[in-house]
Amino acid sequence: MNTMNLKHDLSKLAARAQEASRAMHGLSSQAKNLALVAMAEALISGKSVILKANRKDVLKAKAGRQTKAFIDRLELDDKRIAGMSESLLEISSLTDPVGEVIKAWRVPNGLWIHKVRVPIGVIAIIYESRPNVTSDCIGLCFKSGNSVILRGGSEALNSNLAIYAALKKAADCLRLPEGAINVVDTVDRRAVDILLKLDKYIDLVIPRGGESLIRRVVASSHIPVIKHYKGICHVYVDEDADLNKAESICFNAKVQRPGVCNAMETMLVHQDIAARFLPGMIKKFKEAGVKIRGCAVTFKIAKSGVQLATDKDYHTEYLDLVLSVKVVQSLDSAIEHINHYGTRHSDSIVTEDYNNALKFLRQVDSACVYANASTRFTDGNQFGMGAEIGISTDKLHARGPMALEELTTYKYMIFGDGQIRT
Amino acid sequence: MNTMNLKHDLSKLAARAQEASRAMHGLSSQAKNLALVAMAEALISGKSVILKANRKDVLKAKAGRQTKAFIDRLELDDKRIAGMSESLLEISSLTDPVGEVIKAWRVPNGLWIHKVRVPIGVIAIIYESRPNVTSDCIGLCFKSGNSVILRGGSEALNSNLAIYAALKKAADCLRLPEGAINVVDTVDRRAVDILLKLDKYIDLVIPRGGESLIRRVVASSHIPVIKHYKGICHVYVDEDADLNKAESICFNAKVQRPGVCNAMETMLVHQDIAARFLPGMIKKFKEAGVKIRGCAVTFKIAKSGVQLATDKDYHTEYLDLVLSVKVVQSLDSAIEHINHYGTRHSDSIVTEDYNNALKFLRQVDSACVYANASTRFTDGNQFGMGAEIGISTDKLHARGPMALEELTTYKYMIFGDGQIRT
User: Fold this and answer.
1) CA-CA 20 to 30 A from B352: which of A11, A194, B85, B299?
2) Interface touch A22/B365, C-beta < 8 Å
3) Residues 251..270 of B with a Cβ closer than 8 Å to A: which?
4) How far is it, in rounded angstroms, from Cα B305 to Cα B293?
5) pLDDT (0 to 100) of residue A1
6) For the residues A105-115, what does the mean pLDDT come to?
7) How far is Cα A280 from Cα A277, in angstroms, rounded to an integer?
8) Where are the domains of chain B?
């Protein structure tokens, strides 16, 4: 397709999505929940078609010599499809955020001002190879009353189209607003750039994937983007830490699932407990296959098996069994290090000291700050939001895990009886 | 100054502002309120210096043959300085938003999650010639715990610097965080473009001024911008309107202060009451000097003195005693017209019909939707927010009038006792 046609087609799609969003806005919670249940069922009844389409993508990825991790993210099976279906059911059981009166008050002249939660409108999701994102995002945007435009990775196009077809058919049977859920069905790479200029129709872009994808989206978008680039998360072991808790929390934060954004990348240790804490901790990490890059003091305490950390290491999101370790002089130095090298994602202090915990929680400028818990809890499900559409390290609109409420905005509805301004 | 120096100086200023914002965060409400009172007093005691500086700007504007309206916006006198001082006192009396626990809950593993309101960080305000914006913005950003970087119009530079000097001296006497309030003191036009690239230090930009200024800021900013371009506000007179209320509301919305963004630019009238309503209404408008641009039906009903409206007129923010008038077939056509031609600012329906009012409030996609009241109430003070830093027609983060709460974000503080993820 040439660029002119692509532009025209995508504009038309986005304009229809905006029109649909106005009808979506008016759907009752009941109608939306019913549709979500129908969509959940459609994934199960359409399983063989979806698996067949997915098989095509997997074979192509294997022929293209993609990594094992890549193929693992891409590949669907019975269990994964069941999981996607359950997610939709779970979303159907969550409270509908739309229509909530966030605040209401009367001003002296009698005007009755209501601040009411409403859908954002049209949301575009730009993502990479996981096909489950397709159904999760459709479910969350649908429940929050938004139209959605999905643009997944070309490696997963067959899978995404099959999932979309199943869900769309279920929606159409229930006569839901035409144009509310959309998948961009071209592999043409220019489609993303064109979408990102359609600020007339699209209200919000959420990119999900690696840092380079997200930077590309931010650089060329005319539409507000909510995102996180990366998660360089810290655990700081305070001089007053319970060392058993510290060991268990640090081990969990690094090792339980190292490839995700809320895993620990740097461990900070107060100098007064470094000699007691580090040898056992480092031994445990090494047994789990974690490679350590330490500061000079860590290097000295560990005696062997530690590589000297560079400044660049503290800026690195390893997403792997590699850990930076730094001994710091004080709580203040730890906070300073985190605010300088961190990515405003998730950071934790381990301490038994009341004032140190409070100081850390207040002064660390991150979306999620923990006292005595693993950073691995930064996750919509773990927070009790039932689902998650992404994590934000931005400060505007939404911060931390984002679910249904974060996919809404508000408007003021004002009830008067003839008031004029004097 | 050359560009290299300017870049270096502005980066340094912004970095210091970010550092100061971390200290600002920790200030007690009491300390902030005391400082605001001191600032209010400093404006009064420094009045003669401020007026002298303002005189320079005014003389220059007159020599440059600026319009009367321009000079009116620029010129200060005793009364205006007293007003600025009172604003600061009012801000000191408002509730401090920082530290509010917006929500808190416990998840099954015992983690205690707190969603806590915190300052945004560093806010840059780009504005035009009104010097009172300088003290208002310093007051609001200060109270909400943010550092602020002000860049006013070069025509008001002497006034702005004098106001800033008075407020800064008051802040310094109280040993408030160095670098929390800043004015960019160069007339070099490149300063704005440089500021807008400092996303490492600055969290939010709020432009205040004409549409061209705001478009320029949005086009070149790497930092999130909250704004409104213009306000094309509508009043729709429904077939079930009380015509006395309708006349009084429409007249107020157009005439009371036509040069502001919440004034009515287009009046929509249901076809079934057009013949009864329009002749008297148009007569009243004409007596007040309002020029009418009407649709064909309006043109016919009015008989004389109405110019035919073009499509472009419905897209125009007159900011003057000019009004577009259109007769519509139904409530649905009115809603469609507003969602198409409007700017998502403020729109009102006049009706005695319950269902029509509700439908309008729900389906018009604007920041503020009114039933039976003038659009002129979209204003932080009128909403009972005590002050206002601007109005947003964006959908993300803040919508409608913005005051202290809208200058904050939140973070999650999570209290654990050793939780790890399994």
Assistant:
1) B299
2) yes
3) 251-253, 256
4) 9
5) 52
6) 97
7) 6
8) 3-227+400-415, 233-377
